[in-house]
Amino acid sequence: xxxxxxxxxxxxxxxxxxxxxxxxxxxxxxxxxxxxxxxxxxxxxxxxxxxxxxxxxxxxxxxxxxxxxxxxxxxxxxxxxxxxxxxxxxxxxxxxxxxxxxxxxxxxxxxxxxxxxxxxxxxxxxxxxxxxxxxx
Length: 136
Description:
Blueprint: H1 5-19, H2 23-35, H3 41-71, H4 77-89, H5 98-115, H6 125-133
Helix pairs in contact: 1-2, 1-3, 1-5, 2-3, 3-6
């Protein structure tokens, strides 16, 4: 099956949305808004999912950092927090820590499946995106 240029472009942009953590998605939203052109449902799904995942990752990172900072002042718990932080951030797979490896694998999965033309599914996130764009 031969893909049209529009399908090829939509798949490439959807994949780049995940790789750039939503930056290309935001730019493409602005381009679509100023051109006043409707977006393809496939591209709309991946754009909103990439932006949602990026914001959720940022907020989770900030909240965990703030909570660990507060917990580091409590006696006895500070040793546990330091040990847990070390285990999660120590190099495990080459130069990557466990957290970095999980995030990297998630981004690769999302980018690869969107480039193949599939709707990438992430637990809980995809249901929210489906509901908000009216896919279900």
